[in-house]
Amino acid sequence: MAAVKRLKRVAALQPGFISFKWSAESDDLNSGRRKRVNKNKKKNWNKHSDIQDVEEFLDDVRLQERTTGLCFLCLLEVQERKKGKKSKSRPLRIDLILQHDSLVPPPKDVLAYQQPNAKKLRRIAENAEKLAAMGVLPRRQKLLLNRRPATKTSKAKTAANNFPDRPYYDLWGGEGKFETADPYYLEQTGKSCVKRPEKLNVKPSILPAVEVIAPGGSYNPDFFSHQALLLEAHEVEVMRERAELRIERQLAVKQEDTATEETVFEELVEGLVEEEEEEEEEEEDVSIRGGLQQEKKTEKERKRERADKIKSQQKQAARVFTDKKQQLFQLRSIQATLKRREQRTRERVAQRKANQEAEKSMPRRLGRLKFQAQDLEIQLSDEIPGSLRTLKPEGSVLKDRFKSMQKRNMIEPRERAKFKRRHKVKYVEKRAFREIT
Amino acid sequence: MGGLQKKKYERGSATNYITRNKARKKLQLSLADFRRLCILKGIYPHEPKHKKKVNKGSTAPRTFYLFKDIRFLLHEPIVRKFREYKVFVRKLRKAYGKAEWTGVERLRDNKPGYKLDHIIKERYPTFIDALRDIDDALSMCFLFSTFARTGKCHVQTITLCRRLTVEWMNYVVTSRSLRKVFLSIKGIYYQAEVLGQLITWLVPYQFAHDHPTDVDYRVMATFTEMYTTLFGFINFRLYQTLNLVYPPKLDSKAESELKAEHEEDYAMDSESYLEKLSALSASLARVVATAEEEENQLDLFPTEGEDQENMQAREKEQKEQEAQKRLFEGLKFFLNREVPRESLAFILRCFGAEVSWDKSLCIGGTYEVTDETITHQIVDRPDMDKQYINRYYIQPQWVFDSVNAQMRLPVEDYFLGTTLPPHLSPFVEEKDGDYVPPEKLKLMALQRGEKPEEEEEDDEEEEEEDEEEDDVDDEELTEEKNLKKMEGTRAQGKTLAVKVTPGKVKPWETGSVGNKVRLEQEEKAEEKRLAIMMMKKKEKYLYDKIMFGKKRTTREVSSLRCAPNGCKATHFKFEWPSQSPDLNLILRCCGRT
């Protein structure tokens, strides 16, 4: 295809052939009126350009090729190239003008051939040669040789941390590089690290890094320890079941909440009968209260009240006094109560201490989710393999490590982020389907 | 009164804490980077005591960090690297989008990286600190080294982990510091004693992975990144302490032996050396060639009294340890192809045995099955066609049990095709009075030096032992009674001649040694009695209570142990693989409802 295109182009360029333009003009002549066509579309080009003669020419070329084997066109091309070369080799006109065409030669500039201090320089060179023969180097060369080879300043690339052949060295062996320098200078230039607070070296949990499985988890366990492990797993399962049941119970509809005929009827009647009674009661309340407010105490009453008050105060004071007196005789019981109280506080302190101690090994609440222990790895009695070869490992070590880190409060428990769609997906029935249905 | 009004949440615990999101913004990091930084620097979230105060009145559950911790993080040079990396990614993406391939190349060449060395140094100022915290690193590296190279994490990380674990195993083999092994259903637990630190780690079984979905791989990878750095430095130091070359090199002698013709079949050239190292069958090259490991002798100081006793005890302990280290010395093992090669080779080499395996199983096998000098062949199949007469065919559990028992167990129980005795956990330490499985009792008897008489009398033997134990208990009880009586008389102000209670002659204390032992025991009893007499009334009450509790547990245990109807606990072991007995049924059998 590409070859054909090229040929077309070449044909159009040839001087001996009729060009497009010419054909178009002839068209115009024939039609009398020029037809205006937009040539910005390939379609129009195809439609309105006459390529009849080009096709003919190409046919001719092909024929020639078939008969003679040599392309007539190629010959043409070669000739043209030769012509072009000739024209290029000819000097420019301007150069010809500027050429020296006088027969008298220009005078020779003697000074251009003379060297200042030539004698001195020659002597120096001779001297240097002599010294070189003796093996003495000039000062400049000596300096050059003495110069330290330039250290490679190319940036040392830091290899990735997981590079398998990475080198290690004695990290704790030598003294630090900067320890001798001035600490203030180091701090200001950012060359010394900030000291790590001691508190950060305390582990967040006292649990060991690797907790060994209970003896019942052996691949070939002792009977009783295996049963003990099963029991433990069973208890966990029971607790889980109980929690589920509790939720179900709470969700269940109560028998009392279901509507019976009576309740339905009551609901219908509600509010029809009792309204009037309530209103009356309210009115009475208001009248009583109003009556009380309006009543005024007499002077006599006030006096009596005051006297009563003083009397009761005195009585109270006397009572307190006697009580205090009596306490002298209650010393033993008071002591007993004190003792009891102290005992209680002591117990509480001990309890609190124990709780704090227990909390150290417990997973803390570090985020939105609570820590959930992984399922106990167990093998039922009929799953226990007879030999190491037939053992089917239980659980995953990866998960065990992950959960262990969560349990030791090193990372917060998280759940995998769910994929959330921002916009709803619009359902479009595909055309192919639509045709079928 | 007067003065400025105190505003809420501007002092106290509200200012001591900072939420995760705020901390993230303060550091100008994305959440993933922040999380990574926290893991690397060892800064963990903190649960405040008064959540509502800290949360400024809200009770929404949030993750809190201590404010001072975050301020400390601000100084970390790695933070800048993280930001640089972020920019790098942005530039790279842009270059990709514009299809500027030279730009992409240039950017790739200048990819910012970071080192964790200074963080390790900062977190673990001394070598021992680091060694104490190595459990996690070991477990993690062993886990990652077993991952398939499927793109769950970087292949490079897996290779590095593999390299480090191989180095560690080689160190443990050379230093002979393995102590305990436990085959569990989860994986294999190992415990080693390195420079006085007990180190426990868990190794998953090979090919046992299903990748759980609820594990955050990015977090795990970050932890591993930190741990590999730590682990490498520790390995270097450990190799230095043993005068070994680091990175490990095989002994020149061993190397020439291992030169096989089929080397190319196993692995690429770059991998084959690691493979050879991981075979564990050859010893490592040392910096200073030493003919033999010199015995490290305990320094002797002239001491008196208690110190001397301690000294003797220590000496004895060390002797035992030395003996344990040479547990399998002189034995020649051959591993069949169905047994877990790596763990067995590791354990056997740790105790001085020679190991080999089939040529097609792994690189590094040193001798063939046909070798006449092989003493034990480890087999895990019901039957073997061709058997050699001069070697034992044993199941792999023998090796593990022997290591835990610190002695070579009799091989009869572990022969080809026999039902194995249970594999007990070496990590359980029974207090006196707890239930001890009969197998363990038997083992303890073996350790004391008793020999089970005959195979047929095995059961009887066990029974005897049980009785024996009971006897001992009874003795103690009678002693207690005597003591009480005596104390009563003392209280009345009478002096009593020191009476020797006639003790039974125990089987292991017959002969001239027996007398000595008995005397010692009497002395001890006397001391105990005196101590009891000196007790205050209150303490005495407590003591009685404790003793009562002990007695009760022993009673329960004995009822458990000698199960009713004359059926022994060991008989169960033949029952349970066939059917699963109900727990209640068992308990009823034992006479407890």
From TrEMBL, chain A:
Keywords: Nucleus, Ribosome biogenesis
Pfam families: Nop53
Keyword Nucleus: yes
One term under GO cellular component: nucleoplasm
GO MF: 5S rRNA binding
Basic and acidic residues biased stretches: 294-311, 344-361
Listed transmembrane segments: none
Transferase among keywords: no
Xref: InterPro entries: Nop53/GLTSCR2
Function description: May play a role in ribosome biogenesis.
Protein name (Swiss-Prot/TrEMBL): Ribosome biogenesis protein NOP53
From TrEMBL, chain B:
Compositionally biased residues, Acidic residues: 452-478
GO terms, biological process: maturation of 5.8S rRNA from tricistronic rRNA transcript (SSU-rRNA, 5.8S rRNA, LSU-rRNA); maturation of LSU-rRNA from tricistronic rRNA transcript (SSU-rRNA, 5.8S rRNA, LSU-rRNA)
GO molecular function, a single term: RNA binding
Major localization listed first in the record, in broad terms: nucleus
Keywords noted in UniProt: Coiled coil, Nucleus, Ribosome biogenesis, rRNA processing
Domain BRCT: from-to ranges: 323-416
Subcellular location: Nucleus, Nucleolus; Nucleus, Nucleoplasm
Bias (Basic and acidic residues): 479-488
Top-level taxon: Eukaryota
Stretches for region Disordered: 296-317, 445-490
Entry-linked SMART domains: BRCT
A single cellular component GO annotation: PeBoW complex
Pfam families in alphabetical order: BRCT_2, Pescadillo_N
Keyword Coiled coil: yes
Keyword set includes Plastid: no
Family annotation (InterPro entries): BRCT_dom, BRCT_dom_sf, PES
Family: Belongs to the pescadillo family.
Functional summary from the UniProt entry: Component of the PeBoW complex, which is required for maturation of 28S and 5.8S ribosomal RNAs and formation of the 60S ribosome.
Subunit structure: Component of the PeBoW complex, composed of BOP1, PES1 and WDR12. Within the PeBoW complex BOP1 interacts directly with PES1 and WDR12. The PeBoW complex also associates with the 66S pre-ribosome.
Name of the featured protein: Pescadillo homolog
Lineage of the species this protein comes from: Eukaryota, Metazoa, Chordata, Craniata, Vertebrata
